[in-house]
Amino acid sequence: MKKVVVISTSLRPGSNSHVMAEQFAEGAKAAGHQVELISLRGKEIKFCVGCLSCQNTGACVFKDDVPDIMESVLNADVVCWATPIYYYEMAGQMKTLIDRMNAMYPKDYHFRDIYLLTTAAESEELTPKRAESGLQGWIDCYGKSTLKGHIFCGGVDGPRAIAGNAKLQEAFELGKGI
After folding, report:
1. 20 to 30 A Cα–Cα from 99, which one of 9, 40, 79, 171?
2. How far apart are CA 114 and CA 163, in angstroms?
């Protein structure tokens, strides 16, 4: 049994990327894994100011919801990020969280397998490439981890537009296969 953390970064109710995150989580649960689905909706996540205090203390100077999220990520075996694509890049709140998790860098971590789920109104093959590249930059800082899978669902713009899309079953199966 693995500990799986799924981070849904969209703030929109009925988010397509959140629906895909739920399917990944359900697949992982069906396989017998312990799953925590974290939604950034309603969370307080302040911007990193680059003071680097966290590199010396192991903790950020800001007191918000990030330490709890970071603790879950540090102790996970698998981390799955779900994000909508805005302007051909990950959602800003995902990048803000990644920046704030800088305090993790000097710490021991358990995660090895990273997954990415992305959705967008655009459906071109290149649409999710920058988001994947941005996440890869974070992964590269944790040398024992690798990007194990990425599912992109384009052509979904309005809330819950992903309903009935085959990519949902693909996300379920990806979660089930970890």
Report:
1. 171
2. 25
Contact (CB, 8 A) for 119 and 162: yes
Superfamily of domain 3-176: Flavodoxin domain (3.40.50.360)
pLDDT per residue as tens digits for the range 69-119: 999 999 999 999 999 999 999 999 999 999 999 999 888 999 999 999 999
- The CA-to-CA distance between both ends of the chain, in Å, stands at 10
Above 90 in pLDDT, residue 58? Answer: no
Mean pLDDT rounded to a whole number for the chain: 96
The two three-digit tokens of residue 28, written as one number: 């992982």
Structure tokens at 23: 């399917």
**Helix (H) / strand (E) containing 134:** helix 129-140
Percent of the chain with pLDDT over 90: 96
Residue 138 in tokens = 């974070």
Q: How many Å apart are CA 122 and CA 18, to the nearest integer?
A: 17
